[in-house]
Amino acid sequence: MDHARMDHSHMNHAGMDHGGGGMDDMCSMSMLFTWDTTNLCIVFRQWHIRSTASLVVSLLAVVVLAMGYEALRSVSRAYEASLAKRISALPRQLQDETGRQGHIIKAVLYALQNFYAFMLMLVFMTYNGWVMIAVSLGAFFGYLVFGQTTSATKDNACH
């Protein structure tokens, strides 16, 4: 027998678990648009849709997650405006130090926004129509609730 190639034909795979249940319980990975929710997993293997109830709860969770992204953008805008107002009220010698500290916090908020946007992109890339609609509804409701002072023109490249 060639040691570089292993022969598994004699092994019994019936009792082995290859990732959380039988073959009927594996996450489906579609690279094409679909409305099918059979074995749909959203980003993580643990977020596995197994029933109509779990689908509805998951879609509501996706709406709330997308709304959360708009809330984070709103918090970031409010912090930026507050920082600019505080800096302009300070004496010149304190403006640079406060501006540097504020810039670090703005950078953290910016990184969080980008991480969040890419995670939402991964949710959207399930290619499932129901999930895509949920992300869009979350953006809609998030903008209604948190975007009163924001232009409707999108300036983020990802989400």
UniProtKB/TrEMBL annotation:
The chain crosses the membrane at residues 53-72, 130-146. It holds the Pfam family Ctr. One of its GO terms (cellular component) is membrane. Keywords: Copper, Copper transport, Ion transport, Membrane, Transmembrane, Transmembrane helix, Transport. It is found in: Membrane. GO terms for molecular function: copper ion transmembrane transporter activity. It is a multi-pass membrane protein. Belongs to the copper transporter (Ctr) (TC 1.A.56) family. SLC31A subfamily. PANTHER family: COPPER TRANSPORT PROTEIN, SOLUTE CARRIER FAMILY 31 COPPER TRANSPORTERS. This is Copper transport protein. The gene is CTR2.
